[in-house]
Fold this sequence. Notes:
This protein has helices spanning about 25-40, 55-70, 105-110, 115, 165-170; strands at about 5-10, 15-25, 45-50, 80-85, 95-100, 120-125, 140-145, 155-165.
Amino acid sequence: MEAPAAPRSPVEPEAAQNVVDIVVGSPGAMTDLGRRLAGLLRAGDLVMLSGELGAGKTTLTRGLGEGLGVRGAVTSPTFVIARVHPSLAGGPPLVHVDAYRLGGGLDEMEDLDLDVSLPESVVVVEWGEGKVEELTDDRLHVRIHRAVGDTSDEVRHVTVTGTGSRWAAADLGTLAG
Length: 177
């Protein structure tokens, strides 16, 4: 069950321009959040996902893929680093990257040619914090927080931060469902 959340003031005033907090109560609700997020995305958008192992980054991306109408099952690209899912609906392809095993910053990411893919794709990078910010001034950062340790708690606290002019006036409050 998701609790509605209103946009709040930016956490980092010099960079963050639009922030919303969302409580997600189940994996299905995380997939639904991804579907809603897909409705805000267009070619050229960069989405960075961060959170603990098992927080729901791939589940959110699966919902994004459903919302964008892409081909192929969206699964974790941990061992292949990146997967491209072409659109079946005439929209942009989804490029799904898992940067967990990549130690360097943008230099190491250059081998993936994300700068070439970005203008015509929606690029989602799990574990991208500190690695892909230089690709564009306009990006979404989705932070997923969950209880850690021996717990069956499925509640996630999601903070979506839109940075740059692309996201300044976007209605991120619609993500709260």
